[in-house]
Design goal:
CATH architecture of the largest domain: 2-Layer Sandwich
Strand content: 15-25%
Number of helices: 8
Distance between the termini: 50 Å
Radius of gyration: 18 Å
Structural class: alpha/beta
Largest sheet: 6 strands, mixed
CATH topology of the largest domain: Nucleotidyltransferase, domain 5
Helix content: 25-40%
CATH class of the largest domain: Alpha Beta
Number of strands: 11
Amino acid sequence: MKILSIDSSSVSASASVTENGATLAEAFMNNGFTHSETLMPMVKKVVSSSKISVSDIDLLAITNGPGSFTGVRIGIASAKGICDAANIPCIAVSTLEAIAKPLCESDVLAVAVMDARCNQVYTASFYKGERKTADRAILVSDLLSELKAEKKPIVLIGDGADMCFEKMKDELSNLSVAEDEVKLIHASYIGKIAEEKIQKGEEAIKSENLLPFYLRLPQAERELNNKNKGVKQ
């Protein structure tokens, strides 16, 4: 199965083509450019480097959140456009699950953390690939309180890892941060998760049923709701 995977839900963007667990081509970018400028050129690059055409793709895998509202929307819109044009089914993957995937074979509690601003993180914990918590938006202080009971080594991974480590390191002696080369999402891991989902019997969906997964309302909506309730900003 040839899987085209894309991600633009966090500070970085990535695209890959995988086949039966092997990576045929991958592109990754974290240089400050907007994802609307970088994502589709990366898709074209990895398809071309794989020496295939889009019509050869069997499945498109996409991170649908949580994450940057703008980034998630760009990814979803790009995925829908590709799927509709080439009549390809798709499958959604949790951004946090994709972040933690590089640590799935390590004997550690992998804590995926994305900076959600306002002293909050989007987070989920995994042990050897098994989900231990749901995707959540919580205060860093609340996450710290939870992790104090953990006896296993804890590895923070994601764009919020360094920030969380600085705030937690003095109280958690078993805490560390993932290596830089795997800290941010690489699309090949999305492809591996998607293939595992299909093997476990999860069905791909049509692009019209692909939806973003948000843990909070966009800032503009939150501000409007607060304004309507008379809450001062």
